[in-house]
Design a protein that fits this description.
Blueprint lengths: L1 H24 L5 H22 L14
Helix pairs in contact: 1-2
């Protein structure tokens, strides 16, 4: 469940930043296109975060003995 919380937070962060950036610098783009760009970025960042935040504790190498 903790993994999904991180994914949701990243998606919200990307949505807020993309909305601000597109509204500030690219206001000539139509609103519908901006919404599609924002949604695509949020979904892509959520999927990447979900797969990159896996915890493989069984596959961690043990510490080398000295």
């Amino acid at each position: 469940m903790k993994r999904f919380n991180i994914v949701i937070l990243v998606m919200i962060g990307v949505t807020i930043l993309a909305t601000w950036k597109l509204g500030k610098d690219y206001s000539a783009i139509q609103l519908q296109t901006r919404i599609l760009i924002i949604a695509g970025g949020a979904i892509l960042s959520g999927v990447l975060t979900y797969f990159l935040s896996k915890r493989d504790v069984d596959r961690v190498d043990p510490k080398p003995d000295k």
